[in-house]
Design a protein that fits this description.
CATH architecture of the largest domain: Up-down Bundle
CATH class of the largest domain: Mainly Alpha
Structural class: mainly alpha
Strand order of the largest sheet: 1-3-2
Radius of gyration: 19 Å
Helix content: over 70%
Number of strands: 3
Largest sheet: 3 strands, antiparallel
Number of domains: 2
Number of helices: 9
CATH topology of the largest domain: Four Helix Bundle (Hemerythrin (Met), subunit A)
């Protein structure tokens, strides 16, 4: 009975390392990932590597094709719009539940993430850590909704959200400092159970991030179709 668990754990570890390499740009969009090469580098069999690639495909980070192996996806402007619109819909829905179900401990956790991001930015911060903390706030917000299916859907697109935040904010301290203020405003509105104010804050926050990201894509992918 232990064998499947061991393989699953190993596959998860392989997926974790490959995911980080993809998200931080060490493995580039369009680059092929060869099972044999990965298994040799990580000193494991090809089975866990194959399982890891299946997981990363479900997360939208790679594309697996028959006889071609796995390739890191290249995010287009249309992909950005899809991720943005889905994330916005999920977080707005989460807020409705938060108004009814949030507990004091949820507010404490959310405030703790805000303080952790502030402490991170006050030193020689790592972009990876800042992105983690930025997203952790939003994940804690969805957790506070106490809706397991909603949380599962949000977490399914989390790797793509992470990738987009990372690519937009490379070394942009200002954007994370602005996020702290936005998160604090949102927390205060949650304490007051002011759903309309929360809704406006989330909408403006995510729409602004989306607009900045689209501008980045216009500069780096000038031939792609614009998103209205």
């Amino acid at each position: 009975m232990l064998t499947p668990v061991e393989r699953s754990s190993l596959a998860e570890e392989v997926a974790k390392k490959l995911r980080l390499e993809i998200l931080t740009g060490n493995i580039k969009p369009g680059e092929r990932i060869l099972e044999q090469a990965i298994s040799a580098m990580m000193k494991t069999s090809r089975g866990p590597v194959r399982d890891a690639l299946i997981q990363l495909e479900h997360e939208g980070l790679i594309l697996r094709e028959p006889n071609r192996g796995a390739t890191v996806v290249s995010m287009t402007a249309d992909d950005v719009e899809e991720v943005h619109s889905l994330r916005l819909a999920l977080e707005l829905l989460a807020l409705r539940y938060v108004m009814e179900r949030a507990r004091a401990i949820d507010i404490v956790r959310l405030q703790g993430v805000v303080e952790s991001l502030r402490a991170c930015l006050s030193g020689n911060f790592s972009l990876q850590e800042a992105v983690d903390l930025d997203l952790q706030f939003h994940e804690e917000l969805v957790v506070a909704a106490r809706n397991n299916r909603l949380l599962s859907m949000w977490q399914s697109i989390k790797p793509q959200i992470w990738f987009l935040i990372y690519s937009r904010n490379a070394f942009a301290l200002k954007s994370f400092q602005e996020a702290i203020g936005t998160h604090e405003d949102l927390l205060e509105s949650i304490r007051r159970k002011d759903f309309e104010k929360c809704k406006c804050i989330i909408q403006e926050h995510l729409d602004g991030a989306y607009a900045n990201l689209i501008e980045t894509y216009k500069e780096t992918h000038p031939k792609e179709k614009e998103v209205s």
